[in-house]
Amino acid sequence: MSEVLQHLAQVLAQRKNADPKESYVASLYAKGLDTILKKVGEEATETVIAAKNGEPKQLIYETADLWFHTLVLLTHQGLEPTAVLKELERRFGQSGLEEKAQR
Prior knowledge:
Blueprint: H1 3-14, H2 24-31, H3 33-52, H4 56-76, H5 81-91, H6 96-101
Helix pairs in contact: 3-4
């Protein structure tokens, strides 16, 4: 796992115990799953719009927001980013059609 991703995962886990008045992430945790899901949805939509508009810098920015809020979601659910990376690794080299057929 990259150093950035590993460090971010550690910070997000620490923010579970932070004061919601002093931390944006802690405030998301305090507001609960529905608020976090809403943010993930908003960021996904903004990412799609940036891609559709053909704005590379905006697409990178919005994708970073989407990844960040997805990591907040994983942490809220007690999951580590490494679990997602392991799943991606498991799928590597496997046909997407084959993987979908196994579901």
